Amino acid sequence: MKRTTLRLAAAAGLLAGLATGAMAQDKKNVTIGVSIPAATHGWTGGVVYHAQEAAKQLEKTYPGLKVVVKTSPDGASQANALDDLTAQKIDALVVLPFNSDELTDPVRAVKKRGTFITVVDRGLKDASIQDIYVAGNNPEFGRVAGKYMADNLKSGNVVVFRGIPTVIDEERVVNFEKALEGSGVKVIDKQYANWNRDDAFRVMQDYLSKHPKIDAVWASDDDMALGVLEAIRQGKREDIKFVLGGAGMKDMVKRVMDGDKMIPADVSYPPAMIATAMNVTAAQFFTDAPMRGTYVLNAQLITKDNAKEHYFPNSPF
Amino acid sequence: MTETALRSTSQPRRFSLDMRALSPFIALIVLMIAGALINPDFLTASNLLNVVTRSAFIAIIAVGATFVISGGGLDLSVGSMAALIAGAMILILNRAGGADASTLLLGMGAALVLGALCGLANGLIVTFGRIEPFIVTLGTMGIFRSLVIWLAAGGTITLRNADLRELYRPAYFGTVAGIPVPILVFLAAAAIGAILLYKTSFGRHVIAIGSNEDVARYSGVPIWRVRTLTYVIQGICVAIAVLVYVPRLGSATPTTGLLWELQAITAVVVGGTALRGGIGRIWGTVAGAVILELVANIMVLSNFVSEFLVGAVQGAIIIIAMLVQRSLQRGR
């Protein structure tokens, strides 16, 4: 993730250098407003952390840049926060909307004042509002996990944990199964466990009673993976070779880094995508490179080799 | 059936009462047979022990809910309360630091006190504020839930000391004479609950208030005190459930205990306690909690229910179980 950001910024710098020869380093005053949800669960907690870190970093990199980060507990207060931000005369807005329906019009109103708009993760209903769109890749998230299973297991039985019935979950699971097609790996069971540790523990206990031989578990989420591990430990089962989670929670990345046999890898869906969006937005003002467009971040496979880049010990997530 | 006319009048009545109290257990046996037919792995000792152990949280909370409901009240805040107590307890354990039994006892004591206080708050607002318990506990449900989100800063509250976790772990995973500790805890909670409800004047007062508050008041039952105490008992039961919940995963999240209140109420009603108050059945409640967990277990073990339809089949089984119970009672 971090690497993607750096690469984007580096590429931007290089392009700008080529285009103009001498980059415009004259004093420029730019204010970027960042509007994100407050930390109501682990992943958004990570978003808040990375937004604040990126703000500090960017202000150091680009003298004259001011970044204002505002968190809101729900959609209505996020709309109010947008008003507050525009009152501070922002040049650009980076927004991770609570939901598409409620916030499309408030963001459109900000756009009408001539503000540059960057939308993150959850898209608005009207895509013409945004200048830049940065998002994670859910189909890829499933595909990377499925490919890892197919490559490392070759053949065997896999049980699958689904999240909450949503489009995100469906995209992930469908592509996971597609990636397994033609390999010897078979999905023998699928159940919803609501991205919840307790539910995952319960379902895993039942899987263990039901299936005498399970080779690997796709928990599809790090929270669920923690519940799964506890159930396996209690059941004292030796047949399960590994558990594959997802999202990149620091505790799990740490286990990958430490070479835990049960957690050999993880798949990223980084809350740090907010930092990517802020970097690209800042580059729009301080470099001459074209920045407008859609950035889809790869769901990266986190292994022992690259776990360091995904480990943020100070992040709450 | 012509014989009944010859018998003394008290006998058939006692028999029908027994039938009512027995019906949740009959439903339980029917479900077990169904489970065994669906998947032979169902009847293995390890699976059944898993299921009964898992039902411990809801069973313990539902023992408290039996008091509140049979006394004509309702408590919707138990799930959020459980999350709050779990979060606070883990934070206290983290702060205290040491990995010894005294730290653990401090945390457990704090959890019990906090549970009793949460229950006392519910009880006092219901009785002295004269507000419908549905509204009061809906309010405290929101308050407790936000407090735990605030304590966790939106993330997870985790028991950090690994040694302390290992020390505490047997409280969920340990066994005494082959029986998992949580099962022993909920049997003990139910036994104490049964003695309180059936053998003490307090228990009779609870039932009296639940069946007719005015009559109870004219008979000199201290309504406010008894009613407030039922909520305190509920709070303590939630705390006891938390004591066996925390060692399982060693963490509390903003989603801990979500919808536990509905499961507890369902267990109480499936167990034969009247939702309008006046009838309380502790052992039926325990059977109800096990039934709920069994239904979920059978769903995962069955091969023919799509994961999209699990909720629908679960709902149908609970309704059918209730209908069977009713027809058993009428048939006598």
Automatic annotation (TrEMBL), chain A:
From which source organism is this entry? Microvirga puerhi
Belongs to which family? Belongs to the bacterial solute-binding protein 2 family.
Residue stretches making up the Periplasmic binding protein domain: 32-283
InterPro entries, per the entry: Peripla_BP_I (IPR028082), SBP_2_dom (IPR025997)
State whether keyword tRNA processing applies: no
Q: Where does the record locate the signal sequence feature?
A: 1-24
Q: Does the keyword Signal apply?
A: yes
Q: What is this protein called?
A: Substrate-binding domain-containing protein
- Name the Pfam families on file: Peripla_BP_4
- What is the superkingdom listed in this entry's lineage? Bacteria
Q: Give the record's keywords alphabetically.
A: Signal
From the Swiss-Prot or TrEMBL record, state where the protein is found. Answer: Cell envelope
Automatic annotation (TrEMBL), chain B:
Keyword Membrane in annotation? yes
Q: What is its main location?
A: membrane
Q: Which InterPro entries match?
A: ABC_transp_permease
Q: Where in the cell is it found?
A: Cell membrane
What sections of the protein cross the membrane? Answer: 21-39, 51-69, 76-93, 105-128, 135-159, 171-198, 228-246, 258-275, 282-302, 308-324
Q: How does it sit in the membrane?
A: Multi-pass membrane protein
> Does the UniProt entry include the keyword Transmembrane helix?
yes
Q: Name one Pfam family in it.
A: BPD_transp_2
Provide the alphabetized UniProt keywords.
Answer: Cell membrane, Membrane, Transmembrane, Transmembrane helix
Could you tell me the superkingdom of the organism this chain comes from? Answer: Bacteria
* Database matches in PANTHER family: ABC TRANSPORTER PERMEASE PROTEIN YPHD-RELATED-RELATED, RIBOSE IMPORT PERMEASE PROTEIN RBSC
Q: What is this protein called?
A: ABC transporter permease
